[in-house]
Design brief:
This protein is an alpha+beta fold. It has 2 domains: 40 residues; 97 residues, K homology (KH) domain (GMP Synthetase, Chain A, domain 3, 2-Layer Sandwich), CATH 3.30.300.20. It contains 3 helices and 6 strands. Helix 1 packs across helix 3. The longest helix has 23 residues. This is Osmotically inducible protein OsmC. Pfam families: OsmC (PF02566).
């Protein structure tokens, strides 16, 4: 299976990129780099892709395991190297689950399955970055 993305220059530093879902997105540089900040930054978008990939896995497993979770979020921080080409060499992901009836063992299993088995974006990141993953549980 292949994905086909078309990214079209809109002038200045702004681009519009298609997506197989049919929802397009805009990419733009910040004002400090000649853009107007009217879109996603490419490297930050990679982190959103990583968190989104793993988040979709975990959400599917929450449903499949019939777990009670009021909400969850993933905080992702990445360290950018100093020299060009600058890339992420360290990435930290923190999964936060909220609810009164959290099955911590099963939720941890869902996170582990995503990061070890299902999330292809995670596997891609492993090729160039050291990953650290934490799971936190919060009673409401």
């Amino acid at each position: 299976m292949t994905n086909h993305i078309t990214t079209t220059w809109l002038g200045d530093m702004k681009f519009e990129s298609t997506n197989p879902s049919g929802h397009n997105l805009f990419i733009d540089a910040g004002e400090e780099n000649g853009g107007k900040g009217e879109g996603y930054r490419p490297k930050a978008l990679m982190l959103s892709g990583l968190a989104g990939c793993s988040g979709l896995d975990v959400a599917a497993l929450i449903k499949k395991m019939k777990l009670n979770v009021d909400s969850f979020k993933i905080d992702t921080e990445a360290n950018l190297t100093e020299e060009h080409p600058k890339f992420y060499d360290k990435v930290a992901m923190r999964f936060h689950f909220y609810g009164d009836d959290l099955n911590e063992k099963k939720l941890q299993r869902a996170v582990d399955l995503s990061i070890e088995k299902y999330c292809g974006v995670m596997e891609m990141f492993r090729q160039f970055a050291k990953l650290s993953i934490e799971t936190h549980f919060h009673k409401k």
